[in-house]
């Protein structure tokens, strides 16, 4: 809403001796398309941290996918999909070859290692109490992931009550 214009219209209506409806200027945003101020995001509701060794291709990919998702605002009525939000993991989009699990085996491919990001995001949403609509675990268990809470890359979260903003912070140390 344009607050200044709304106040002007309300004042004009109050001083006008003839009662009339007041039309307030409202900007309708599609779900998932808001700024933190518009959405009312003002507190941390969940967090989770995972660790990785320095200087591997997978670390580049983890930071790249975090950059693509950072700042995403999930408003009520919108379902967040990690794959849709982050897009394809290709060399052209800044991903590098690194081991990825394909049919239970490790195979180098662009974006390898980003499932660790998905796991971290999943667990932050889990501890925030957000509804997890879908996730598909890897075909191979990864010991750094909490059992049963490792979503692979098909992570979908639904927001039905409050807006949420993904704020992702990466730390690189070598």
What brief labels describe this structure?
single chain; 5 helices; 2 domains; two-stranded antiparallel sheet; disordered C terminus; 174 residues; alpha+beta
Series of H and E elements: HHHEEHEEHEEE
The poorly predicted ranges are 169-174
Proportion of strand residues: 5-15%
Q: What is the CA–CA distance across the termini? A: 47 Å
Name the helicity range. 25-40%
Summed up, the helix count is 5
Q: Structural class, please?
A: alpha+beta
Strand order of the largest sheet: 2-6-5
Domains (count): 2
How many beta strands in the DSSP annotation?
7
Average pLDDT works out at 76
> If you compute it from the alpha carbons, what radius of gyration comes out, rounded to the nearest whole angstrom?
21 Å
Shape field: elongated
> Biggest sheet, in brief?
3 strands, antiparallel
Summarize the structure.
It comes from Micromonospora humi. The chain is α+β, with helices and mostly antiparallel strands and 174 residues long. It has 2 domains: 1-30, no CATH class; 33-165, no CATH class.
Give a structural overview:
Helices cover 28% and strands 14% of the residues. By secondary structure, it is α+β, with helices and mostly antiparallel strands. It folds into two domains: 30 residues, no CATH class; 133 residues, no CATH class. The radius of gyration is 21 Å and the shape is elongated.
Task: Please give the structural blueprint.
Layout: H1 3-15, H2 36-39, H3 57-69, E1 73-74, E2 79-81, H4 82-86, E3 97-102, E4 105-110, H5 115-128, E5 132-134, E6 156-158, E7 164-165
Antiparallel strand pairs: 1-7, 2-6, 3-4, 5-6
């Amino acid at each position: 809403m344009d607050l200044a214009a709304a106040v002007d219209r309300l004042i004009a209506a109050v001083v006008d001796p003839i009662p009339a409806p007041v039309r307030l200027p409202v900007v309708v945003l599609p779900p998932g398309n808001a700024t933190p101020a518009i959405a009312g995001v003002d507190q941390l509701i969940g967090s989770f941290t995972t660790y990785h060794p320095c200087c591997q291709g997978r670390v580049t990919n983890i930071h790249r996918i975090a950059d693509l998702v950072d700042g995403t605002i999930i408003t009520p009525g919108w379902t967040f999909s990690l794959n849709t939000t982050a897009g394809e993991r290709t060399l052209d989009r800044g991903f590098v070859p690194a081991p990825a699990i394909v049919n239970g085996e490790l195979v180098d491919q662009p974006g390898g290692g980003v499932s660790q990001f998905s796991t971290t995001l999943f667990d932050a949403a889990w501890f925030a109490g957000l509804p997890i609509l879908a996730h598909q675990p890897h075909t191979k268990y990864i010991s750094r992931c909490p059992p049963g809470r490792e979503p692979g890359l098909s992570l979908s979260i639904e927001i039905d009550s409050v807006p949420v903003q993904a704020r992702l912070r990466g730390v690189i140390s070598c």
